[in-house]
Amino acid sequence: MGAFTDLEVWKKARLLRNTITELTKSFPIEEKYRLTDQIIRSSRSIGNNIAEGHGRFHYLDASKFLVNARGSAAETIDHLIIAFDNKFIDEQTLENLKKVVRNVCE
Question: Over 70: is that where the pLDDT of 87 sits?
Fold first, then answer.
């Protein structure tokens, strides 16, 4: 079995996580323990679940973590919409990041 770091899906999740981390540096300081924390956690959870699923022995056990990763991806999109609604990001940024998140899930 290869390492989870060799998986293309994990590599995409890593790039998304790093992009989100950089993006949130521009969010207002009062959002540090609200939206910023939530979106960072959900974007990290995508790759975390992929890695944990990869480490499971049985396919059915592993697939549960991939479902969780997909849920975290949807949560990340919702947080991005909130960032847009609060004018922390523009519409182009929202649409670009939604595509990136969807690309991780494909």
Answer: yes
